[in-house]
Write a structure and sequence with these properties.
Blueprint (H helix, E strand, L loop, with lengths): L5 E8 L5 E7 L2 E7 L8 E2 L6 H14 L3 E4 L4 H12 L3 E4 L7 E2 L3 H11 L3 E2 L17 H4 L5 H11 L9 E4 L5 H8 L4 E5 L2 H8 L5 E3 L2 H6 L5 E7 L7 H14 E12 L4 H7 L12 H10 L3 E5 L31 H31 L7 E7 L2
Helix pairs in contact: 1-2, 2-7, 9-11
Length: 384
């Protein structure tokens, strides 16, 4: 498939009003997807499609690289699929039912819906596919097809409190705009910069204020314009020299009293080391919070909060050799009968063994707690 080809999304409605989607080309199905009933009506709400639908659809787009996507049914979830196609440079045409679509009532519903409807096209006789983006491997293979937006919202909520009293926020490396959207829903003024074209297109389809620029260059040209900067999962994309220089850019971009919030993979997190970090092909290295703090201090920033120091972490030793029971010597009571003496001896041995097992459990639990350490470190700094 190529830029002259068309991918279609057609729907069928079951007896229970459930909506099923078929994604394919030339009457050949590629995917069959089932919509959740709550968001399958022809209305648009500010809600991401379920990741179980998004992930296979994006992978299909990246594999097929069509010039156009034709959709015969627009609802909250298919609207999000349309956004992913648009951000990859694919022309999206709604072939039926666009006139029946209504927007939800909230400000976010209106913002998301208006931005998307301005990008969609209605089917005409002269419709022609357009060339999509380069079909080679790019960051969007990871950023769009492997990230669960609903999960990212939970990550944003962990740091949202640091921005509640801020008035002008810059999101550095904003990606698809999940943080910016949550700030907008809270009535906060925020804008974002990112170097990935596809991610910026998706954020624009949500009606967000974003720019596609080299992130470090975009920071370098800013002077005392923001009272808060959000920098989540960006430091691990830089070399030490680049990070040290970027800390200086952050300092200059903040007005006095401004706050910088850094979120990045914690190298002390076992889950981050084993399960997450190396899934992103553009990660350069881990940075320990102590390194990030040192570089920030060198740039003139003052540490306000370090999540790693809030966890009461304790590193405990753990032997390679399995534990063994200690020898237990119990004196028999000469006044007791032989049977009673044997029983008392066995009970005493069991009590000692239970005490040993309880100690082993406590030691093992202390080791297992390292698995509970947060995947990410959060550091906040103030500009004096």
């Amino acid at each position: 498939m190529g830029p002259d080809e068309v991918l279609t999304i057609t729907h069928t409605q079951g007896a229970d009003d459930a909506i099923a989607l078929r994604v394919g080309s030339n009457d050949q199905p590629d995917l069959d997807l089932q919509l959740t009933s709550l968001y399958s009506s022809p209305s648009l709400h500010a809600r991401y499609a379920d990741f179980s639908i998004v992930s296979p659809f994006v992978q299909c787009l990246l594999h097929r690289r069509p010039g156009a996507l034709y959709i015969d049914y627009l609802c909250t979830e298919t609207a999000d699929l349309a956004r992913f196609a648009l951000c990859l440079g694919v022309k999206v045409v709604v072939t039926a039912g666009l006139e029946r679509v209504v927007l939800g009532e909230s400000d976010a519903d209106q913002r998301w819906g208006a931005a998307l409807l301005g990008l969609l096209e209605v089917s005409t006789a002269s419709d022609q596919p357009r060339a999509g983006d380069d079909a080679g491997f790019a960051y969007e293979h990871y950023a769009l097809g492997s990230r669960n937006h609903a999960l990212l919202i939970n990550w944003v909520e962990r740091v949202a409190r640091w921005f509640e009293d801020r008035h002008k926020i810059l999101d550095v490396g904003c990606g698809t705009g999940v943080f910016l959207d949550q700030m907008a829903r809270k009535g906060l003024l925020a804008e974002g910069i990112d170097s990935n074209v596809a991610s910026i297109r998706y954020a624009e389809s949500l009606g967000l204020n974003v720019r596609c620029v080299d992130v470090r260059e975009g920071l370098r040209t800013v002077h005392a314009e923001y009272d808060a900067i959000h920098c989540a999962h960006f430091v691990e994309h830089m070399t030490p020299a680049e990070l040290a220089e970027t800390m200086g850019f952050v300092y200059r971009a903040l007005e006095p009293g401004g706050r910088a919030v850094f979120v990045f993979p914690d190298p002390e997190s076992i889950r981050s080391q084993l399960l997450g970090f190396w899934r992103d092909p553009t990660h350069v290295r881990f940075y320990h919070p102590d390194i990030v703090e040192s570089m920030a201090r060198a740039a003139g920033l003052v540490l306000e909060f370090n999540s790693q120091r809030q966890d009461a972490r304790r590193v405990v030793p753990f032997s390679f050799d399995p534990p063994e029971y200690e020898a237990v010597a119990v004196d028999s009571d000469p006044a007791s009968s032989e049977a009673e003496s044997i029983l008392l001896h066995r009970l005493s041995v069991l009590e000692r063994q239970v005490a040993v097992q309880e100690r082993w459990i406590r030691e093992l639990w202390a080791v297992n707690q390292t698995w509970a350490w947060a995947d990410d470190a959060v550091l906040t700094f103030l500009r004096p």
